[in-house]
Amino acid sequence: MSENPADIRAAFLARRSELEAAWPAMFGADWPTRARTGVLVGGALAVYVFGLYTLEFSPAVIFHGLWRLVDIAGLMMPPSPGTWERFLLYLDALGQTLSIALLGTLTAAVLAVPLGFLAARNVVANAVLHVLTRRSLDTIRSIDTLIWALIWINVVGLGPFAGALAIASADLAAFAKLMSEAIEAADHRPGEGVAAAGGGHLARLRFAILPQVLPIFASQVLYFFESNTRSATIIGVVGAGGIGLWLSEAIRVLEWRETSFLILMVLVTVAAIDLVSQRLRAAIIGRRG
Amino acid sequence: MAHTITIPPDAQLTPLLRGYGAAVAAKRRRVMIGFAVLVLCVLVAGAGAEVSADKFWSGIGNFGDYFNRLLLLDSGERVWTDPADWFWGLRRWGRLLGETLLIAYVGTLTGTVGAFVGCFLCSRNLVRAAGLRMAVRRVLEFCRTVPDIVFALIFVASFGLGAIPGVLAIAIHTTGALGKLFAEVVENIDMKPVEGVAATGGNWFAQVRFGALPQVVSNFASYALLRLEINVRGATIIGVVGAGGIGQDLIVAIRQFHTSDVSAILLLIVLCVMMIDGVSERLRHRLLALERGR
């Protein structure tokens, strides 16, 4: 069909009413559908406006704030750590942040393996046990890393150790959930093979399920490590170690050039970690899959 | 069915076994090297994070002790013996929790609109200008990489204490996070409807509105709901830096050791988050069903 678009358009316009009568759905939604969409969108907008009103948004506040923000952005240029010693201090804090992320992620991952098996339907047949495991995991999951950090500070004192424990507690549940889902999705035939060769329950877990689940899990752990590097930069805000402490301090004393330098450091680090972990992930999945 | 397995003669078997042994050994070696590197990293990180077994073991007792205290009222009674005293601040906390939900909602919706605009502008299949695409991508990346708490800290400095910095921080972070997901959806659409609209003379907006949008809208909604769940969690803590919501009261209670208040607020947060998760999950399943039925 090598027809000119203009010809098609003319032909369509000539037969428009006929076509419209034949395929009404192609020319617009029917009224009930429209009404439902309208009510949904209207409701969402009404809640939005109510929210703006309740949270005391006003053009004056926004305008004033934006003005100050532009001001601050100006003060942030150029980013600078101040002195050379400060820069070394910041580097040290950044190392601490990475340590927190690594330790927290690994601790959570190691602890999540047995929990994941407990929460998986095809491993533990006991319904009560697995519902209980799932519910408690859900509870842990709904508490944010920062709250965990506040709690752990009360337990082990201020410092990066509390931060690592906070990341571990917050991620434990998410990992266990992912692990249990991966186990439930695992192919059951290798397990039958192991059973046929005379392997017991534990042998089935070790030789049939673990080899299938481990690569998936390892790539998830790397993914969480990336996102935990981001979380670890902020738990310092409440005193749990790492670069966040310096960042919040710099903002509090209005040292904007140091603030922007610290943000820049975080951005570069996160980008580097992303790159490395992407490579590793590809290697792990490619090698075993 | 009975199978008989014939064992090959030794002359055939030895090289096979040797080959198998070599392959397994190579794999083991690789795993061991990886493991050694990991252990080294952990040791360095352990030193960096000031991990000490002493502190942990003396601390772990504190942990049990702390949880014990979380469940004690000021009078020394267990919390569930007197729910009225435990939840004495229910009215105030309820209001703050409502504020938290509103912060999450307004922030998510604002961020979704931002991501919606951004994602079409940075999709390879809809925008030819590489410069514009790259610029939008970099902006989204920046919004997503800077943690929302950092935005909140800066906004508190410029907008003053209150809910507004919280909403803006969540909105900006959401724009970045959703923008990336949305753009991935848009880059995977079927281009034929878009070409069809272009062929009938539709301009770029008509192509996006009638060609691309109908394919992506339910996916977008489901991602936005998922983000809302995440943002409700985020909004519970944004008050820690003074940006509104229940976080303010929580941090005060934790810092001043009002332990029964801490447990009451945590319980409210957990219930609230679970409720939102449940509703949103149900909505997402319905959206998924809608998508399949099409």
Chart the SSEs and their pairings.
The complex is a heterodimer of chains A (289) and B (294).
Chain A: H1 5-14, H2 16-22, H3 31-54, H4 59-75, H5 84-119, H6 127-141, H7 145-156, H8 160-184, H9 189-196, H10 201-235, H11 243-252, H12 256-288
Chain B: H1 10-48, H2 53-70, H3 83-86, H4 90-121, H5 130-145, H6 148-159, H7 163-187, H8 192-199, H9 204-238, H10 247-255, H11 259-293
Helix pairs in contact in B: 4-5, 4-7, 4-9, 5-7, 6-7, 7-9, 8-9, 9-11, 10-11
Question: Can you walk through the features of this model?
Answer:
- The complex is a heterodimer of chains A (289) and B (294).
- By secondary structure, chain A is mainly alpha-helical.
- Chain A has 2 domains: 53 residues, no CATH class; 202 residues, MetI-like fold.
- In chain A, helix 8 packs antiparallel against helix 10 and helix 9 packs across helix 10.
- The longest helix of chain A is centred in the middle third of the chain and has 36 residues.
- With 294 residues, chain B is mostly helical.
- Chain B has a domain of 202 residues: Orthogonal Bundle (MetI-like fold).
- Chain B contains 11 helices and no strands.
- The two termini of chain B are 47 Å apart.
- Classes of the chains: A mainly alpha (289), B mainly alpha (294).
- Chains A and B meet through helix 1, helix 3, helix 4, helix 5 and helix 7 of A and helix 1, helix 2, helix 4, helix 6 and helix 7 of B.
Number of strand elements of chain B: 0
CATH fold title of the domain at 92-293 in chain B = MetI-like fold
Number of domains of chain A: 2
Beta-strand content of chain A: under 5%
**Which chain pair has the greatest contact?**
A-B, 67 and 62 residues
- Radius of gyration of chain A (CA) equals 28 Å
Rg from Cα of chain B: 28 Å
**Gap between N and C termini of chain B, in Å?**
47 Å
Q: Profile the largest sheet of chain B.
A: none
